[in-house]
Amino acid sequence: MAATLDHFHLGCVNVYTTAYDLMNATKLGHYDGGFTREIVIGQKTMPLGGGAYLEIESIVDPFATAEPFRRPWWYARAVTLKSPVFSGVCLRVGTIEELNEIATRHRGATAVTVRTPPDGPQVKYWEAPGTAGSSPWQAGKPTWCCWENRLFAHPSGQPAVNAPGLVRPSGVRWVEVGGTKAQMQAWLGQNPDDLKMTFNRRSPGVYAIGIDTDAGEVEIRRPPAATA
After folding, report:
1. Which residue from 74, 210, 56 is spatially nearest to 134, judged by alpha carbons?
2. What span, in angstroms and rounded, lies between the C-alpha atoms of 49 and 31?
3. HEC profile for the chain?
4. pTM of the complete model
5. Is 60 in contact with 42 (CB distance < 8 Å)?
6. Which residues have CB under 8 Å from 44's CB, separation 6+?
7. Strand partners, 217
8. Taking CA atoms, which of 89, 99, 103, 156 is between 20 and 30 Å from 137?
9. What is the spatial distance between Cα 35 and Cα 44, in angstroms, rounded to a whole number?
10. Rounded to an integer, what distance in angstroms lies between the CA atom of residue 220 and that of residue 208?
């Protein structure tokens, strides 16, 4: 089964001001996505419609864990560029078996992430291909995930804050990425057209996404965090 878009990651220095400013600029709502303990980050989640969402994340306790988790690579890029950065894109498959096959194909591993929303209960998903000391996102390559049997609690379907003047998103229309279509297809094992990807032939990474809404198309453009 072909993968579909699941989520984009926007790394930043201040999760609160970034989510607030982005909501004001796009009129897309967000909500408190909770935290993960592994690298002590907090998240604001912005549903994009069509089963996809944007993760807006930053460190909330830089002294609670040791390096390199204290300051993730995407955080360092956001500090250097003085801007929120698109860290990467994660695709969704339907079964753990598919995810394990992807991990094997890319000589990586499957790892679990547990997130705790402010009102609980915890939500869990598996991601691949993980490799020791680095992430495919650092090279501008997508990763894949599989959610446990709880798609009713998928972040894309949760209600946003009740702010005035918000638009209703209905899905991702396009994704602008670096590199070439041939390079991406070789990594994905499927046609990038299925994922609405367009290519600017610049250095790898996510550059922008376009979202359909009931008030027209909304664009989110930020520098890519990828360094390879």
Report:
1. 74
2. 14
3. CCCEEEEEEEECCCHHHHHHHHHHHHCCCCEEEEEECCCCEEEEEEEEECCEEEEEEEECCCCCCCCCCCCCHHHHHHHHHCCCEEEEEEEECCCHHHHHHHHHHCCCEEEEEEEECCCCCCEEEEEEEEECCECHHHHCCCEEEEECCCHHHCHHHCCCCCCCCCCCEEEEEEEEECCCHHHHHHHHCCCHHHHCEEECCCCCCEEEEEEEEECEEEEEECCECCCC
4. 0.94
5. yes
6. 15, 16, 18, 19, 30, 31, 32, 33, 56, 57
7. 212
8. 156
9. 9
10. 5
End-to-end CA distance of the chain: 29
CATH architecture of 4-163: Roll (3.10)
Closest CA to 9 of 209, 211, 216: 209
- Residue pair 89/207 in contact by the 8 Å Cβ criterion: no
Q: Is 112 exposed, middle or buried (0-12, 13-18, 19+ CB in 10 A)?
A: exposed
- Residues 57, 209, 149, CA angle at the centre, nearest 5°? 60
Locate the domains of the chain by residue range.
4-163
Give residue-wise pLDDT tens across range 162-220. 999 999 999 999 999 999 999 999 999 999 999 999 999 999 999 999 999 999 999 99
Residue 71 tokens read as 């300051």
